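Hey, I'm writing a tutorial for new members on how sequence and structure tokens pair up, and I'd like a real worked example in the thread rather than a made-up one. If someone can provide the structure for the chain below, I'll link this post from the tutorial.
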Amino acid sequence: MNSKTDIVFKVWGARGSIFAGGSERNVFGGDTTCFSIETDGHFLVVDAGSGLRALGHELMTRPEGPPSEIDLLLTHLHIDHICGLPFFAPLISGLTKVRLWNSVYPDPETLRGALSRGLAPPIFPVDTTVWDTLEIRVPEAGARISLGPESMARAFPLNHPDGACGWRINSNGRVVVIASDHEHGKQSIDAQVAYYARSSDLLVWDASYTEEELAARRGWGHSTWQQGLKLAEKINVGRTLMTHHSPERTDDALIDMERSAKAVADKTLFAREGLTIAL
């Protein structure tokens, strides 16, 4: 960290729906959604896709060891956003206390039950008691939650099958907004996304589809980079990071999409594994 106001945002996985590897996907990577936000006094993770495994390995190999506490903000419980949990070494080792947050479920036990059903035999060979170590919290959308001495977050609704929430994270004077897994077009929800994403330093936006693909995929819960940039321009966003790349999308295709997006708004990037942004 260069100063007390720095926060470091890092991409550990940026694919959507399912892991996608192979030689044509080395630049952007194949792991599913996982981001970290680190400050001098706090470590925060957003979503627990397959990228969480690499994050856990990195934390375990730090000379000081993994953080004693981590706040994990989940957008929703679709498998591409939780499949990394059984492989998150700081949690499984018992070295790190993990607080898991999500505003879609009415109470902690309902969320814990849904998580246990998705990551339990015969679907996954893990004793479900491992999830008892998670401290699960279900704040109401819009409620301010404290995440350390200089960090707080608020959840807001996204338009996605089975329900999802985005996150506005204020940390050390910077604002990061996660609006992945959102289908633009439902006015009441779009208005809330715009409200919570306003004047953010970094907006992480769902860009799963092209404009041509979108017409045939209404109701699937995803958007385009064009929709994200139109929103960012209206609400004074600093930088926009496109994520949740389709598993079919190759590096060449994503590079072309990124080039087109940057021609519209230069402060636009497409998320790739290992990308670090200091704010």
